[in-house]
Amino acid sequence: MGRRLNPHSRELWQPVMSNKQLKEKFPLHDIHLSVSQGPTMKEGKYTSIFVSIAVILDVAGLILFFVGIFAPLSFWDFFVLSGPLLIFMSTFFWIFWYMGNIKVSDEELNLTKHDI
């Protein structure tokens, strides 16, 4: 029998409940969750954040790039180089957006209750 900390007793360690009581209270078959019982994500909530960040970075990168090309500035190279860097950084958010929109059916996953 395992010993558990009981905060209501004066002893430091005493068993809260026996192993039999633990198994009765927390049966093993209740631990496994089915796919439908798992945590769900609201449809499009987080992917819209990723796509909006990606579009903002793309637009800002293009603006910086074209300012560096067409504006008569002495530090044009900063704009010409930082614009494509922002566009490159936006690809990570495009990938997150794409991965968030992938739909896989339960049959394709071949998951059973015990695999989760």
TrEMBL record:
Keywords: Membrane, Transmembrane, Transmembrane helix. Pfam families: TMEM238 (PF15125). The chain crosses the membrane at residues 49-72, 78-99. InterPro entries: TMEM238 (IPR029365). PANTHER family: SI:CH211-232M10.4-RELATED, TRANSMEMBRANE PROTEIN 238-LIKE. This is Transmembrane protein 238. It comes from Dissostichus mawsoni (Antarctic cod).
